[in-house]
């Protein structure tokens, strides 16, 4: 028979093993892909929104002043610049989040993608 001290140590060891297994469990590939797709769409929408807002403002000013191509082109280019700036800000946020995850140890190992691809 085992003594109570040994049984308690065995239970603690099993709990520790289960915690470590849960920590190393790979994330669902579908969840990761979904979040990456969301980020990509967010960036595309930011760029297109900047273009459309600039186009709308330029067309409105040209209609108001009767100078059709001048403000249209100018504000469309300004809208493109604003959209790109917003996209770059979003990319910087994502990069900082990834760097923070790496520093916290939440990032997957280098070989994790290979293992997932091979079914390991």
Task: Tell me about this structure.
- Helix content is 85%, strand content 0%.
- It has helices at 4-24, 29-65, 68-104, 112-118.
- The model has no long low-confidence stretch (mean pLDDT 82).
- The two termini are 38 Å apart.
- The protein has 4 helices and no strands.
- The chain is mostly helical and 120 residues long.
Concise account of the structure shown:
This protein has 120 residues and is an all-alpha fold.
Tag the structure with descriptive keywords.
single chain; 120 residues; mainly alpha; 4 helices; 85% helix; rod-shaped
Order of secondary-structure elements = HHHH
What helical percentage do the residues reach? over 70%
- What percentage of the residues does DSSP assign to strands (E)? under 5%
Mean pLDDT across all residues, rounded?
Answer: 82
The parts where pLDDT drops under 50 for at least 5 residues are: none
Note the total helix count. Answer: 4
**Quick one: biggest sheet?**
none
Could you tell me the radius of gyration in angstroms?
A: 26 Å
- Total strands: 0
Which structural class do you get from the secondary structure elements? mainly alpha
Termini gap = 38 Å
Indicate the overall shape. rod-shaped
């Amino acid at each position: 028979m085992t003594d109570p001290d040994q049984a308690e140590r065995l239970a603690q060891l099993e709990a520790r093993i289960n915690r470590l297994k849960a920590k190393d469990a790979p994330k669902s590939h579908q969840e990761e892909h979904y979040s990456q797709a969301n980020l990509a769409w967010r960036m595309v929408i930011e760029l297109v929104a900047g273009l459309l807002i600039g186009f709308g403002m330029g067309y409105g000013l040209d209609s108001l002043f009767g100078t059709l191509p001048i403000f249209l082109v100018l504000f469309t280019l300004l809208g493109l610049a604003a959209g790109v700036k917003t996209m770059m800000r979003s990319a910087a946020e994502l990069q900082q989040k990834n760097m923070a995850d790496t520093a916290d140890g939440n990032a997957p190992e280098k070989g994790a993608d290979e293992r997932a691809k091979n079914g390991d």
